[in-house]
Fold:
Amino acid sequence: MEFRYRTPLTADFGLGALHAQGYEAIFLAVGAGRARGLRIPGVELDGVILAIDFLLNVNRGYRVGIGRRVVVVGGGLVALDAARTAIRTAAGRVGEDEVGGTALRVALDAAREAMRRGALEVTVASLESLTEMPAMKSVQGREEVATCEAEGVRFLPAWGPRAIHGRAGRAAAIELIRCVRVFDEAGRFSPAFDEATTQTVPADTVLLAIGQNPDISFLRPEDGVETGPGGMIRVDPETLATTARGVFAGGDGAFPPAIIVTVAAHGKRAARSIDAYLHGEAPPTRLRARVEALPIDTYRMPGYERQPRFVPTLPIKRRTGIAEVELCYSEADARAQAGRCLACHVHPIYDGDRCVLCGRCADVCPEDCIRFLPLDRVELPPLQRDALAPRLGGTGDGFTALLYDGARCIRCGLCALRCPTGAITMERFRFEEG
Structure:
């Protein structure tokens, strides 16, 4: 492998230049690193900053003047990162030649005193309610929310930005409007607001963390790579080939945000396709799965549900802009936490013929991965509905569907343990190329 650092793709050095250098296949894994903006009055004011740019500058060691009052707009992990970073900027910065001895102790003492005196106020405003926030959909996110609250961050859930008000060309406050609904009945993003309920929050700085898109400014029309909504690259979902010969893409630059295991799978799928392309062979067919039932104790540690996730951290009162918050594991803690790792290739399998609809699996699931709904409320693809029609007697009225969210599932096996009829089993997948 050869790594070329500090060699970004640009309009002048893009796919055409790579092909000219002799590269026959290209995989684009550009991610979604460009922050989205807002189209509301006042976004052009000084002090309105994209959260990604703010974090990038802070981590590169640049001074970022944010004032005393900061409002972060957004409900995801980037919003929480920005909020936690902002609240520690009260520490100021210590030059590299001053870090150590008395200088460091003085800086830490000054930072702690400044924070105790309220030197910085950080508020996170999100369209979603606290339970709907994207950050709350993962264990890590829920931990981040709790840590934000412990560090002094204030949350304003179910409030959306309406306008940013300024003074002398700089942000001075943000006007928020009450959000009464984020998603419509079909689950699509369609926020609705109560126009009569607003509030104005003073803000020297407004950090926007409302989502990200891929930066594909290096693509040119002659490259032949088509894009879709949000600037995402169009690909064949099986081979990950783009519309341009020899160019493949995956990850958040081509698909909606997903868990990291899914993105890793994109890399493997594209590697197989690229290998076949370079050899002049047909793309590999879809993988076939072979399954076998496993006793739960064979793939996870006994008493998993009683072993909490643990990350060693610096005490709250000692956290400042120059102190690392998450610390190293001891060997014993590292081994204990590694033992909690679950097998991602093991899945709960549901046998509808044995199910008595007791709902115990949904009740015990720690991640709310399982739901029961009347079948007539579930939107099925036409082919799947046609395949089920003979068994359902036509419409499917009176039948119940079990909905399972594999992306949120942690494979703890509690649903299988709780099932009184053995309708749920934990089974291991072995994949083969067809």
